[in-house]
Amino acid sequence: MAKPEMYVTLVCGPDCDMETQAIRASLEYFGARVMTHWVGRPSDLMDVLSGEDVMLNTDLIILNFHGDEGRFIMPELDESVYEEGEPRGNFGPDEIARFTKLAGHIVIGNGCSLGDPALAQAFLGGGCRIYIGPDDYPFGNTALMFALRLCYEMIQNKKSIQEAFAITRAMDPEMDMYRLYEQAAAKSLDASLKL
Predict the structure, then answer these.
(1) Is 24 helix (H, G, I), strand (E, B) or coil?
(2) Which of 79, 87, 5, 106 is CA-nearest to residue 39?
(3) Strand, helix or coil at 41?
(4) Residues 88, 82: Cα–Cα separation, whole Å
(5) CB atoms < 10 A from the CB of 127, how many?
(6) Facing residues of 7 across strands?
(7) Domains of the chain, first to last
(8) What does the pLDDT read at residue 2?
(9) What is the C-alpha separation between 79 and 152, in angstroms, rounded?
(10) Are 23 and 8 in contact (CB under 8 A)?
């Protein structure tokens, strides 16, 4: 077996299974090794955010979730099912800041409004080198194509994440809502990419 082109940790939020399966199948076809995590409760996402459940050589983490108002939509459990210390409700900047320890990682929050600046800053504060997400509400096909094209450019055409982001974003006007935030600059590259 040849060495994988890229190592991806793919995290599936509630009601995102079809899109997650499409991303996984495509990335594996491109030559990536994909570890998929299915989020059924908050601790499942917490384990990824803490780095505890991320492959050691992960190049990219894709958080494939629905989002609303800059928050990851989480499963709703009966009160008796939550474990001690498990937060209730959706994950916004406070929860991300509390649990994220992803030093040097590239993370995509691929769901509606998950490119919110406060959420992005929480990821960067948790050590992420780069965080990408849409600051508005893309159609499902747009989110799927964004993830696929970005990874295609990185794997097939050996583009840097910044180059792949620029190419992918230019693919469709609907993708203008995607933002890239970097640790070093701690700001959005959106200004330099707008025409």
Answers:
(1) helix
(2) 87
(3) coil
(4) 8
(5) 14
(6) 33
(7) 6-193 (3.40.50.1460)
(8) 79
(9) 42
(10) no
Q: Give dist(CA 72, CA 13) in Å, integer.
A: 8
Do β-strands 187-188 and 106-109 pair in parallel, antiparallel, or remain unpaired? unpaired
Q: Which residue has the higher pLDDT, 56 or 44?
A: 44
Cα 53 → chain centroid: 15
What pLDDT is recorded for position 116?
98
Q: Please give the backbone phi and psi of residue 27, each rounded to the nearest 5 degrees, phi first.
A: -65, -40
H-run or E-run covering 8: strand 6-12
Q: Is the model's pLDDT at 188 over the cut of 50? A: no
Can you state the angle between helices 17-30 and 140-155, rounded to 10 degrees? 20
CA–CA gap between residue 140 and residue 119 (Å, rounded) = 21
Structural Rg of the chain based on CA atoms: 16
